[in-house]
Amino acid sequence: MKAVIVGCGAIADRWARTLTADPRIDVVAVVDPDIDRAEQLAARRCPAAVPATSLRQAHAQVRADLVANLTPPQLHAAVSREALAAGLHVLTEKPLALQASDAVELAELARANRRTLAVMHNRAHDPEFVAFADMATAAQRGPLAVTAEVVVNLHDPGFRREQPLPVTTDLAVHAFDQVQALISGDPAQVAATEMALPFLGAHCGLAAITITFADGSVLCYRGGYAGPGLTTSAVGKWRVDGPDLAARWEPRDQTSSVRPPAYQRCITTMLDTVQAVTAGAVTPWPTLGLRSVAMLQAALTAARTGRPADVSPIPQEQP
Ligand SMILES: NC(=O)c1ccc[n+]([C@@H]2O[C@H](COP(=O)([O-])OP(=O)(O)OC[C@H]3O[C@@H](n4cnc5c(N)ncnc54)[C@H](O)[C@@H]3O)[C@@H](O)[C@H]2O)c1
User: What region holds the Gfo/Idh/MocA-like oxidoreductase N-terminal domain (predicted)?
Assistant: First the structure.
């Protein structure tokens, strides 16, 4: 399968390493409006790839089967739409989109075109977190009270320097993915604030997000981009209380989820899906990604307006 990497920033190196190590994949083009970045990524990881400044330009020069969408979040929907419309499978970094309506439209377009739309969920698929969530939910005891705290010290913030509400937009979406393994009720309402910390860096801030769920469960999330004093491990601290249940997940060090092999497993699974869909399987409906976008949209609205926002319902998978 021939792959095009779109967005040659910090995370692209990790994707390029994994894609070039997979015998099923040839990276045929690397795209970035900053052509130096595209050329540098090609030189470092995939010398045969054509550098280009747009997907359209790359598509005019090389035939491709799939796109890895590694652009900043506000471009995810447009880049994925362009790729799906051109008949390409899409593997996208999180979030799937910033608006639930865009995310649903992309899922429907992928279904209609019989193409894959796969979203990176490396935190939700962290094997240690999955084991914790399985343990916490095994007895189905009823509504849960969940807190999560994740503060990250970034050395290369990239787009986050100009991103409005960068913590909510870029970091909290991991928690929106993860909480779905703990709470099965539909997310109902979100209260959110994000305070910028410009004295620590243009991308720095602290977000406090509370989500209530239809089954009575509550998630209180505190996340941030800050300095080394506030930093938690990259996967943070999760705590859960429920009727007859108390559980904690506080890994001290970075877990396997943030090391390349686990990230690599996520990408490999996405490529397996592309292969299956190419062989005729029905395009999987990206329920996890869609529900996260619905929570994200409500969190962004609440943070902008200062008022709680309702979470849009996500359509069920079409037969
Ligand atoms: N899953 C994870 O753990 C994880 C970790 C880091 C980043 N990410 C995600 O990866 C994405 C990229 O993050 P990053 O840290 O690499 O950001 P970055 O700012 O380092 O890189 C983004 C790149 O996209 C390029 N770009 C901008 N507009 C473009 C366009 N129209 N077409 C092609 N390229 C364009 C920029 O020039 C830049 O090189 C984000 O969505 C982020 O949330 C995910």
Answer: 2-121
**Which residue, among 53, 55, 126, 66, has the nearest Cα to 92 in the 3D structure?**
66
In ligand 1, the atom with minimum distance to the C-alpha of 75 is 31
Write down the residue that tokens 């996260």 correspond to: 292
CA of 93 to the centre of ligand 1 (A): 8
Residue-wise pLDDT for 277-314, tens only, equals 999 999 999 999 999 999 999 999 999 999 999 999 98
Q: What is the CA radius of gyration of the chain?
A: 19
Query: Cα–Cα distance between 152 and 264 in angstroms, integer?
Result: 21
Q: Which of 11, 82, 255, 258 to mutate to test the pocket of ligand 1 (most atoms within 8 A of CB)?
A: 11
Cα 54 off chain centre by: 22
Give me the domains of the chain, ranges plus CATH numbers: 2-121+259-283 (3.40.50.720), 127-256 (3.30.360.10)
Minimum-distance ligand 1 atom for the alpha carbon of 6? 33
Q: Kindly report, residue by residue over 149-185, the tens digit of the pLDDT.
A: 999 999 999 999 999 999 999 999 999 999 999 999 9
Helix (H) or strand (E) holding 15: helix 12-21
